[in-house]
UniProtKB/TrEMBL annotation:
It is a multi-pass membrane protein. One of its GO terms (cellular component) is plasma membrane. Keywords: Membrane, Transmembrane, Transmembrane helix, Transport. This is Carbohydrate ABC transporter permease. Pfam families: BPD_transp_1. It comes from Salinirubrum litoreum. PANTHER family: ABC TRANSPORTER PERMEASE PROTEIN (PTHR43879), GLUCOSE IMPORT SYSTEM PERMEASE PROTEIN GLCU (PTHR43879:SF1). Its main location: membrane. The lineage of its organism: Archaea, Methanobacteriati, Methanobacteriota, Stenosarchaea group, Halobacteria. Belongs to the binding-protein-dependent transport system permease family. The chain crosses the membrane at residues 21-39, 89-110, 119-140, 171-194, 243-265, 277-296. InterPro entries: MetI-like, MetI-like_sf. It is found in: Cell membrane; Membrane. Residues 85-296 form the ABC transmembrane type-1 domain.
Length: 306
């Protein structure tokens, strides 16, 4: 009897030891992954808070002493990137809203409305997702620079409307481009979401006499909030961080129309590169996307889960 008790006790002890080792291994892996992903951010943040002398005397990931600590680089970076931040907001907000709205409308038409040719149109949307940026750079440059130069065509408008300048034509071209490029992926996301909405709801609204537009506005749109959160956050991040389209569509590559990503390229550049202000500028540029994720993270998670 006592032998059985001792064996059971050893078995429980072995199981506890095994579980403890697994947990220790799990925590070790998690800590390693946390350090791997956060170390670049830590190095960038620490570098942005150093004076030039402290940066030259210490390793990138080592915090500065009190005599080497400064916020001047952040203030200088924000001042130099201020115009670029405004330009990025001007082009990112409308491009994001238009992409999500048009994608929602297209997906509704492809899932809840019966008409001929749906499959062909859907295939075109899917094909649009797989066109790489590099394949359209030259055609885009020719279109906006030679065939349809908005900054020249809209000259009377820029002159007549207060607060509008000629360089806003370049931003308008970027808005149209990002909207066109974002609609296919938004359509795909909304279509996957709408396929799970019960057809009985739509059919009941149709039997009550609701039109196609009324069904979308009163039935589909209220149910689309989680997916709108997903597409808005995704598109905002994509458009905000874009550099290629801005380089191609804005002729000079910088100047008054430059979004923040273009302005960031030139920040701190010179005979000697100032890495402290470059790091401060990179973090200032990333702040809007971080704020968007923090504010709408819960809705984003709900949309992804849906």
């Amino acid at each position: 009897m006592s032998g059985r008790t001792a064996d059971a006790s050893r078995s429980i002890t072995d199981q506890v030891t095994e579980v403890s080792l697994r947990r220790v291994g799990l925590y070790a892996v998690l800590v390693g992954l946390l350090a791997f992903y956060l170390s670049p951010i830590e190095a960038g943040l620490v570098t942005s808070l150093k004076t030039t002398a402290a940066f030259n005397e210490t390793a990138p990931y080592v915090p500065p002493g009190l005599d080497g600590l400064t916020l001047a680089k952040w203030a200088e970076a924000f001042s130099l990137l201020q115009a670029g931040l405004v330009n990025s907001l001007i082009l990112t907000i409308p491009a994001t809203i238009l992409s999500a709205t048009l994608g929602s409308l297209a997906a509704y038409g492809l899932t809840k409305v019966d008409w001929k040719g749906q499959v062909g149109v859907y295939v075109l949307f899917i094909a649009g997702i797989f066109i790489p940026y590099q394949a359209v750079l030259v055609p885009l440059s020719e279109f906006w620079g030679q065939m349809f130069p908005l900054y020249e065509i809209g000259a009377p408008v820029w002159a007549a409307v207060p607060f509008l300048q000629e360089y806003h034509g370049h931003l308008l071209a970027l808005i149209v481009t990002h909207t066109a490029y974002g609609v296919p992926i938004c359509t795909l996301l909304f279509r996957s979401y709408y396929k799970d909405i019960s057809d009985e709801i739509v059919e009941a609204a149709r039997l009550d006499g609701a039109s196609v537009a009324s069904i979308y506005r009163k039935v589909i749109l209220p149910l689309s909030v989680p997916m709108f959160a997903v597409t808005l956050i995704y598109q905002f991040t994509q458009v905000w961080n874009d550099l290629l389209f801005a380089l191609i569509i804005i002729p000079s590559g910088s100047g008054s129309a430059a979004p923040v990503t273009l302005a960031l390229v030139q920040l701190g550049s010179g005979v000697v590169t100032d890495f402290t202000i470059k790091m401060a500028g990179a973090l200032v540029t990333a702040l809007p996307t971080i704020i968007v994720y923090v504010l709408f993270g819960e809705q984003f998670a709900e949309g992804v889960a849906a």
